[in-house]
Design a protein that fits this description.
The complex is a heterodimer of chains A (about 290) and B (about 400). Chain A has about 290 residues and is mainly alpha-helical. Chain A folds into 2 domains: about 50 residues, no CATH class; about 230 residues, Orthogonal Bundle (MetI-like fold), CATH 1.10.3720. Helix content of chain A is about 75%, strand content about 0%. In chain A, a hairpin with a 2-residue loop joins strand 1 and strand 2. The longest helix of chain A has about 40 residues. By secondary structure, chain B is of the alpha+beta class. Chain B contains 9 helices and 22 strands. In chain B, helix 2 packs parallel to helix 4. The longest helix of chain B has 18 residues. The chains are: A mainly alpha (about 290), B alpha+beta (about 400). At the A-B interface, helix 9 and helix 10 of A face strand 6 and helix 2 of B.
């Protein structure tokens, strides 16, 4: 401390600008974490506890309970399963299709590429509210369960519809994400592969795909969070209560007469757990992907 | 191993009015096992030509034939050609072994054992056996270069194409790899087309050089032929370091004149240079002479340790100049900047009559800035180019046998 304090303003050997920096950082941390802390604190309080204390105060002695978590897990259990059934395939497929489309639009050369790319870019900006009505009409016209008389399809029709919808609306943004990454791939390397005798498909499978791990992490995290957290499509497209996803179930934790804040907060954390888990799992690759490392 | 023919090959980028002609009517015949170097300044179309041979660019017009078969419509995979890229273009996620295996796996039906054998023996040849398990990221530039070569060699293709493969290496490693590559090509006897902008690489490595400028082929010749008998002014200026000296002149009878500077071509004592064409009085010409052919003699002596003969105190002398320099070809000059290279000194000279020349003299000779010197331009070493077309009208005289004997 004292060594580098010579050139900077210091009081009693403490670097003033450094103190200010840490103070500002701490302030920002507090600002961002306050809602989370309040939510966590509330989730561990009894109803009497959250009525008598301020939201961010820790549960007072005697008012601490984990009851809300138990109830939340019970009431969100089916929703969690349904969400996973819907979100995991939708995430993987939209990332895979986006990757394939980006490879075709970036590293291969064919006529009309620019026009197709424009469509993809336009697809990124589609407002979901604008397509709700045609989308519901589309799915009632398709009538998956009627056309595919398989029990699984019949049972999970809502989830399958929702999953496919998310794939379709996720592909444009995935394509754009992958495209910016694939544009950095060395063209000479792909040309070398062509001279080595590899076809376009082989080049994708053996060279481009293995090099895409970091951007896959980015896309998977992004898409998973988007799809998992979606409420709009889930409300509109899924009518069968047995196919209810977690966001809809979470919404229903809101009681009509009494607000059970502890239950709602615990539910919110339960519903958010999978997205947190995904960040932790892919965090390192995510950082690489965002930094654009190949 | 194959003969590679480029027959009136043309490449046009874009269509209509915006189109750019990158390569125009290029014809070169590369013999089986020959090492041809395509050389030229950047943007001359040399890389485009190579990419057309590889199949990475379409051919607008003309034909590329390998072993007599037309390649125009074949994809790069179907040409049996291997290419070494400037950026090495190694697959970063694969080990060196898999980098080398890749081409064999994709382009042949060889079984694993045979592929392994070929990779091993190629690795031995290039002395990269220790690196086989590593990934490209863990290799130095020189090692990557070797792996890139190995990846091409292991496929045993009909022809190698190399696109400035040494330009990312440091100078020392580059000259070492140059020799090695030359040796390797001689051993493998594989037809090779090598693209570079570096005339040193072209001169030292090539069996023949093809010099390109502005998409047009200027000359195809052995390095020495291109050096001593350049087809035109561009080749003369491009090949050779430092560059040939040029003086723009007009023709007055048998004398080349540029302001006060006059160079008679008909001096009786001169051995006359090889005439390619006759001089046209109306057209301007360019006089060219290589720096090493410019004789430099100290005038005012006094420089005791000068190894060169000094000519006393006379202003201009001819008896200290080499015998083959006529008195009319000696000029008074002042020494400008001197660049010592060790083995030679590059001397910038300002002739009293106007033109500025560069000469190279022995590295141990002391030539000081500001000295008065006599400059001899021997008539058997001069080149004359047509000012308009740049075509060589007269090249230096040289025993044809000497040129042939020097051919390797």
């Amino acid at each position: 401390m004292s060594t580098d304090a010579t050139s900077r303003p210091s009081i009693a050997g403490v670097d003033v600008s450094r103190v200010a920096l840490y103070a500002a950082l701490l302030g920002m941390v507090a600002f961002y974490l306050a809602p989370l802390e309040s939510g966590l604190a509330t989730a561990f309080k009894t109803p009497a506890g959250f009525r008598t204390t301020t939201p961010f105060a820790l549960p007072p002695v005697g008012e601490f309970t984990v009851d809300a978590w138990g109830t939340a897990f019970d009431r969100l259990g089916t929703g969690l399963t349904n969400s996973a059934l819907m979100a995991v395939p939708a995430t993987v497929l939209s990332a895979l299709f986006g990757s394939l489309a980006a490879y075709g639009l970036t590293n291969l050369d064919w006529r009309g590429q620019v026009g197709v790319l424009m469509l993809f870019v336009a697809g990124v900006f589609i407002p979901y509210q604008a397509v709700l009505v045609p989308l519901t009409q589309f799915w009632s016209f398709v009538d998956l369960a009627g056309r595919l008389p398989i029990s699984a399809v019949d049972r999970y029709e809502g989830l399958i519809n929702l999953s496919i919808t998310h794939v379709a609306y996720g592909v444009p943004i995935c394509t754009v994400l992958f495209r910016s990454y694939y544009a950095t791939i060395d063209d000479e390397m792909l040309e070398a592969a062509r001279l080595d005798g590899a076809s376009a498909a082989t080049i994708y499978r053996r060279i481009v795909l293995p090099l895409s791990v970091p951007i896959f992490a980015v896309t998977l995290i992004y898409q998973f969070t988007q799809i998992w957290n979606d409420l709009l499509f889930a409300i509109v497209l899924v009518s069968d209560p047995s196919n209810q996803v977690v966001t809809v179930a979470l919404n229903q934790l809101q009681g009509s007469f009494v607000q059970q804040y502890n239950l709602q907060m615990a539910g919110a954390f339960v519903a958010a757990l999978p997205t947190l888990a995904v960040y932790v799992l892919f965090g390192e690759q995510f950082a690489k992907g965002v930094a654009g490392e190949t | 191993m194959a003969r590679l023919q480029l027959d009136s090959v043309q490449k046009r980028f874009g269509e209509g009015d915006d189109s750019v002609l990158a390569v125009d009517d290029l014809s070169v015949d590369v013999a089986d096992g020959e090492f041809l170097v395509l050389v030229g300044p950047s943007g001359c179309g040399k890389s485009t030509t190579l990419r057309m041979v590889a199949g990475l660019e379409t051919i607008t017009d003309g034909e590329v034939r390998l072993d007599g078969e037309v390649m125009n419509e074949r994809g790069p995979a179907e040409r049996d050609i291997a290419m070494v890229f400037q950026s090495y273009a190694l697959y970063p996620h694969m080990t060196v072994r898999n980098n080398m295996r890749f081409g064999l796996e994709e382009s042949t039906d060889l079984d694993d054992e045979t592929i392994d054998d070929r990779v091993e023996s190629t690795a031995e040849l290039l002395e990269i056996t220790d690196l086989l398990a590593r990934k490209p990221g863990a290799l130095s530039g020189g090692q990557r270069q070797r792996v890139a070569l190995g990846r091409a060699i292991v496929r045993e293709p009909k022809a190698f194409l190399m696109d400035e493969p040494l330009s990312n290496l440091d100078a020392k490693l580059r000259s070492q790899m140059r020799t090695e590559l030359q040796q390797l090509q001689a051993d493998l006897e594989t037809t090779t087309v090598y693209v570079t902008h570096d005339q040193t690489e072209a001169m030292t490595m090539a069996d023949r050089v093809a010099i390109l400028d502005g998409g047009e082929l200027q000359q195809v010749a052995t390095p020495l032929e291109a050096y001593h008998r350049p087809a035109n002014r561009f080749v003369a200026g491009f090949i050779g370091e430092p560059s040939m000296n040029f003086v723009d002149c007009s023709v007055a009878g048998e004398t080349l004149v540029a302001d006060d500077f006059a160079y008679p071509l008909d001096a009786a004592s001169d051995s006359v240079g090889e005439g390619v064409g006759s001089l046209d009085e109306t057209a301007g010409v360019t006089l060219g002479i290589r720096p090493e052919d410019v004789a430099v003699v100290e005038v005012d002596g006094g420089d005791g340790d000068s190894a060169a003969p000094t000519g006393g105190r006379r202003a201009v002398t001819d008896d200290s100049l080499p015998d083959d320099v006529d008195a009319s070809h000696a000029f008074a000059a002042t020494v400008g900047v001197v660049e010592p290279m060790g083995d030679e000194n590059v001397v910038h000279l300002a002739l009293d009559d106007g033109p500025e020349l560069v000469a190279t003299v022995d590295g141990l000779r002391r030539v000081r800035e500001g000295r008065r010197v006599t400059v001899g331009l021997p008539s058997n070493a001069i080149h004359v180019f047509d000012a308009e077309s740049g075509e060589a009208v007269r090249n230096r005289s040289l025993e044809a046998a000497a040129l042939d004997a020097a051919r390797v």
